[in-house]
């Protein structure tokens, strides 16, 4: 890993072993990397050339490779340490999952000693407040590690995807929940602005979890838990760019895509890759 400071560090966390659903999400970090060269580096202004053209090529970006076997207690320690090294190198860390268990190492590795003032925003149909250590428990584990529930915002929580028990747990933790239906009434830009203000209210670093299964199954068939009625690909991309553009956000993870279960056209992996680019675009536009 280069020693010089960079704008963005990308790191693969190919976790899959503790997933509650059958997945080969460990294959996805490399699948995302393979897709990225399909896209240009140009960021076009709202009015095209008149408003100017920017480029993510202006950023210094480093790929830190994949963490070997990031599952289990020892694997998670390796992942956390690798993310911490990346965070010491870069203004922004983008972690490529892997299942949603990667949120723990991604967030804690970036926050370090700033955990007491840190915040979390999730784009996810699920609370991820389950018991145990799995892809359904990262938010609960972060709270138990010391993250204040009042600085957690969960966007896209869906009906029929969560039990009442976890809804009550979210309430008891003081988590701000933005139901999927609210996103029909409010633009994602407004929701993200509010979420980042809440998550950043402690003055510490914010981590954003982009769980791609928050999206409608038509655009995310490679996510085992995606369902009809989720958010659009465009909304997820807006959230990713908003995360990249906010100076309080130090890290983003992209999770829950199984590249081996994707549609023939690779639409889910392409969406995940575009989220990487949107984070970079937001960073370039700061």
From TrEMBL:
The UniProt record lists the keyword Manganese: yes
Keywords, sorted A to Z: Histidine metabolism, Hydrolase, Manganese, Metal-binding
Gene3D superfamilies: Ureohydrolase domain
Domain of life: Bacteria
Pfam families, sorted: Arginase (PF00491)
GO MF annotation: an example: metal ion binding
Biological process according to GO: L-histidine metabolic process; putrescine biosynthetic process from arginine, via agmatine
Transmembrane parts of this sequence: none
Family: Belongs to the arginase family.
Name used for this protein in its record: Formiminoglutamase
């Amino acid at each position: 890993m280069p020693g010089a400071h960079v704008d963005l560090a990308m790191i693969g966390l190919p976790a899959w072993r503790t997933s509650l659903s059958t997945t080969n999400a460990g294959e996805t970090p490399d699948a995302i990397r393979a897709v990225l060269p399909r896209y240009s580096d140009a960021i076009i202004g709202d009015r095209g050339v008149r408003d100017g053209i920017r480029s993510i090529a202006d950023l210094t970006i480093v790929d830190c490779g994949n963490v070997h076997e990031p599952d289990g207690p020892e694997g998670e320690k390796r992942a956390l340490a690798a993310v911490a090294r990346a965070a010491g190198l870069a203004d922004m860390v983008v972690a490529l999952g892997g299942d949603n268990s990667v949120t723990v190492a991604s967030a804690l590795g970036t926050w370090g000693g700033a955990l007491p003032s840190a915040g979390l925003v999730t784009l996810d149909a699920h609370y991820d407040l389950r018991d145990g250590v799995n892809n359904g428990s990262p938010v609960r584990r972060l709270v138990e590690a010391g993250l204040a529930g009042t600085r957690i915002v969960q966007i896209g929580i869906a009906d029929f995807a969560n039990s009442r028990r976890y809804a009550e747990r979210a309430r008891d933790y003081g988590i701000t929940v933005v139901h999927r239906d609210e996103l029909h009434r409010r633009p994602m830009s407004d929701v993200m602005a509010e979420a980042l203000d809440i998550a950043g209210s402690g003055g510490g670093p914010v981590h954003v979890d982009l769980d791609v299964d928050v999206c409608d199954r038509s655009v995310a068939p490679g996510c085992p838990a995606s369902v009809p009625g989720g958010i659009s690909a465009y909304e997820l991309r807006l959230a990713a760019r908003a995360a990249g553009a906010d100076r309080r956000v130090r890290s983003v993870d992209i999770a829950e895509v199984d590249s081996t279960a994707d549609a023939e056209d690779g639409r889910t992996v392409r969406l995940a890759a575009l989220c990487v680019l949107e984070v970079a675009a937001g960073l370039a536009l700061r």
